């Protein structure tokens, strides 16, 4: 299964991605996670990416595309993959098509999570992430049993630097300008699966799995 998860910041891409990759036994490729790992490790890529991420802007295409291209060549992508947060521009979408066609592959589906602005902001602002295992919580919608502590591993929960109201609003604006045109791009290819992302995460997952099996 070769899938893309499309949707604005805070829509629930990462949450659905975790469930989907477990079900289909495919790797979860999140460009946001790749950048955050690089920032944590203090790499040159991380340093460059952080400049844009902190402002709510997209990291330049030339930094993103080569990372994904390399990642898709790895052995574990043989069975398929799920791209979360990539592509985010038409240019990235076209570059992905080229990479896949060179590899003789095509995409099965592009799942588009549709969520209104108010919910997006509330979801992103309340998001908490485990610094040790990466599990994602929400202070209201998916709280950990003990405040600030991960249910899985006891790790400390943190808030992303870019999950502030101002930066989330900027990211939503950037999404409308630069990412949304991809819906039309994939719609023309007959690949789009539109889902209402404001629903409960378990119901949503069931709906996605059902549609993917059709
Ligand atoms: P994205 O990867 O699209 O930015 P996340 O999956 O990290 O989004 O979700 C953003 C926040 O919203 C997280 O705190 C997550 O726990 C919460 N969340 C995700 N899906 C739902 C849902 N269907 N209903 C309520 N809260 C959700
Ligand atoms: P969200 O879906 O909640 O916005 P991500 O973790 O996907 O979060 O992305 C966080 C940030 O990382 C983005 O705001 C952007 O700066 C950068 N980023 C991630 N993926 C891409 C991409 N494909 N192209 C450009 N920038 C990206
Ligand atoms: Zn944890």
For CATH, the homologous superfamily is named as P-loop containing nucleotide triphosphate hydrolases
Low-confidence stretches: none
Largest sheet, in brief, is:
5 strands, parallel
CATH class: Alpha Beta
Order of the strands making up the biggest sheet: 2-3-1-4-8
Figure out the total of helices. 9
Radius of gyration: 17 Å
Quote the CATH topology: Rossmann fold
CATH-level-2 architecture: 3-Layer(aba) Sandwich
List cofactors, ions and other ligands.
adenosine-5'-diphosphate, zinc ion
Tell me the series of helices and strands, N- to C-terminal. Answer: EHEHHHEHEHEEEHHEH
Bin the strand percentage. Answer: 5-15%
Question: What fraction, in percent, of the residue positions are helical?
Answer: 40-55%
Derived from helix and strand composition plus strand pairing, the structural class reads alpha/beta
Task: Outline the structure in words.
The protein is an alpha/beta fold and 214 residues long. The chain has one domain (2-115, 173-213): P-loop containing nucleotide triphosphate hydrolases (Rossmann fold), CATH 3.40.50.300. Helices cover 48% and strands 15% of the residues. It has 9 helices and 8 strands. The chain has helices spanning 13-24, 31-41, 44-53, 61-72, 90-102, 117-125, 165-179, 181-188, 201-212, and strands spanning 2-6, 28-30, 81-84, 109-114, 127-130, 136-138, 157-158, 192-196. The strands form 2 sheets. It has a 5-stranded parallel sheet, with helices on both faces. Strands 6-5-7 form a 3-stranded antiparallel sheet. β5 (127-130) and β6 form a beta hairpin. α4 runs parallel beside α5 (90-102). The protein is globular, with a radius of gyration of 17 Å. The two termini are 13 Å apart. 29% of the residues are buried. The model has no long low-confidence stretch (mean pLDDT 97). It binds adenosine-5'-diphosphate (2 copies) and zinc ion. One adenosine-5'-diphosphate (ADP) binds at residues 9-10, 13, 31-32, 35, 52-53, 56-59, 64, 85-86, 88, 92, 171.
């Amino acid at each position: 299964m070769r899938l893309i998860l499309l949707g604005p910041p805070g829509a629930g891409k990462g949450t659905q991605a975790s469930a989907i990759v477990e079900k289909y036994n495919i790797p979860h490729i999140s460009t946001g996670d790749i950048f955050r790992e690089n920032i944590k490790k203090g790499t040159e890529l991380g340093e460059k990416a952080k400049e844009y991420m902190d402002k709510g802007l997209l990291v330049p295409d030339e930094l993103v595309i080569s990372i994904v291209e390399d990642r898709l060549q790895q052995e574990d992508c043989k069975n398929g993959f799920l791209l979360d947060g990539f592509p985010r521009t038409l240019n990235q979408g076209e570059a992905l098509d080229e990479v896949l066609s060179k590899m003789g592959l095509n995409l099965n589906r592009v799942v588009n999570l549709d969520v209104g602005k108010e919910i997006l902001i509330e979801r992103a602002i309340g998001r908490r992430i485990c610094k040790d295992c990466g599990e994602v919580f929400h202070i209201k919608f998916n709280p950990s049993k003990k405040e600030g502590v991960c249910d899985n591993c006891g790790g400390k929960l943190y808030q992303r630097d870019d999950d502030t109201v101002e930066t989330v609003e900027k990211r939503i604006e950037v999404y409308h300008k630069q990412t949304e045109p991809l819906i039309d791009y994939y719609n023309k290819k007959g690949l789009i699966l539109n889902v209402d992302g404001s629903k409960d995460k378990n119901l949503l997952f069931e709906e996605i799995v059902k549609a993917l099996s059709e």
